[in-house]
Amino acid sequence: MMTINKLKENLDYYIPNPKCELEYEKDYELVISVMLSAQCTDKRVNEVTKKLYKYELKEIANLSINDIENIIMPLGSYHKKAMYIHKIANILITKYNSIVPNNRKSLESMPGIGRKSSNVILSEIFNEPTFAVDTHVERVTKRLGLVNENDTPLIIEKKLCKIFNKNDYNKINHQILLFGRYYCKAKNPLCKNCKMNCKYKK
């Protein structure tokens, strides 16, 4: 197994400038985009939010569910996600004065926002050190032997928090995610000449 320093060196090689690939300008836009990204690619989310974010938060809250559905229809589960968007907009306005709360419990009280999503929001908006374990992070960390095959996302999160320095959480989280998205893919991973020492490589 690689040392942690070697792993970090390799991540810096493959993903030197990691960043969130969801496109947003305002904090509430990230909240909505993170929710929309469930079972959907960031690229597809960015395509529909270009239209959605022409509206301000109060305008989104006043849109009908049908109007929102028509905008986000290219996404999966758009009926449910349209309702979530409407509810999130209204919650932010009525409970938080249109300001995204820096509080996990408050974030997770919003529809469609679970632990992984709240970790993304806390990291991206507030620079809170977190590990958001999505399918890419789960796959890569298991292939690299950092965690066990039967570990749940929550167990993986806790283990990664013990393995890495707290100051590195957000950077490494993005790097692992993007490494999984572009290199260590679920199907046809780019194993040839890969610098990583993992269980998957033939």
Structural class of the secondary elements? mainly alpha
**Major β-sheet, in short?**
none
- Distance between the terminal alpha carbons, to the nearest Å? 15 Å
Coarse shape: elongated
The total count of strands amounts to 0
What's the gyration radius in Å? Answer: 18 Å
Low-confidence stretches: none
Number of helices: 11
Average pLDDT, all residues: 95
Give a short synopsis of this structure:
By secondary structure, the chain is mainly alpha-helical.
Fold and architecture overview:
The chain is elongated, with a radius of gyration of 18 Å. The chain has helices at residues 4-14, 27-36, 42-52, 57-62, 65-72, 78-96, 104-108, 115-126, 135-143, 153-163, 169-182. The chain is mainly α and 202 residues long.
How would you describe this structure in keywords?
11 helices, 202 residues, mainly alpha
Task: Give the topology.
Elements: H1 4-14, H2 27-36, H3 42-52, H4 57-62, H5 65-72, H6 78-96, H7 104-108, H8 115-126, H9 135-143, H10 153-163, H11 169-182
